[in-house]
Design a protein that fits this description.
The protein is an alpha/beta fold and about 210 residues long. It contains five helices and 14 strands.
Length: about 210
């Protein structure tokens, strides 16, 4: 199993738990300006991937040209390019993405779409300072703690959703971003069982990784 951490370029503040996530990875990659974040904690990425319009010149020099992977394609974001590189060229089986959900709202929404598109390639999650974000397209059994907040947000529309082990269960109801979502549900025990038909479900799980 190859555990890869990708640091994207959204605004980011390093906290101890996030540094631990980076240091535990088998491979650390930066999506363009994500290299600037890594430079602040002295972690040189194995590769910096993208169109390279955001990496600082001083950081690029520090990383070294041999680790620069130029991808000028403007039809895909730097995060999408980096995930392709991780799965196709680094043999990633599990990818954790940091610094992908803050800053510009349009970028954050695009990154959610990227997460949904790439989940078929391997185990993939986003981590920010409050939530762990995973995608469910069929079934998932998620470890939880009693009282943990989780939100079930359809990426567009999910025709039918089942949720067990939560305070407000679902039994095949539709979820639609423009009509009804499953925001701010609560885990009742140590596992939540989810099933989805006809759509893509984003699951936001609150965390407290500072401890």
């Amino acid at each position: 199993m190859v555990n890869v951490v990708v640091v994207a370029g959204a605004p980011w503040t390093w906290r101890p738990w996030a540094v631990r996530v980076v240091l535990a990875a088998d491979v650390v990659l930066a999506a363009d300006g994500g290299a600037n974040h890594l430079a602040r904690i002295g972690v040189r990425p194995a590769a910096v991937v993208g169109d390279l319009d955001s990496i600082l010149p001083s950081v690029r020099q520090w990383v070294g040209e041999e680790r620069i992977v130029s991808r000028a394609d403007q039809d895909h974001t730097d995060l999408a390019k980096t995930l392709s590189y991780a799965f196709d060229e680094r043999g990633a089986t599990r990818v954790t993405v940091l610094a992908a959900s803050a800053g510009r709202l349009d970028h954050a929404l695009e990154n959610l779409g990227v997460l949904a598109r790439f989940v078929v390639r391997g185990e993939l999650e986003f981590l920010d300072h409050e939530y762990r974000l995973v995608v469910v397209t069929e079934r998932a059994s998620l470890a939880t703690t009693p009282g943990q907040t989780l939100s079930l947000m359809p990426l567009g529309r999910c025709r039918r959703v089942w949720a067990e082990g939560v305070r407000w269960p679902l039994a095949g109801e539709p979820l639609d971003l423009a009509e009804r979502t499953g925001i701010s549900n609560v885990a009742e025990g140590e596992r939540v069982e989810l099933r989805v038909e006809g759509g893509t479900l984003l699951v936001f799980l609150s965390h407290d990784l500072e401890e």
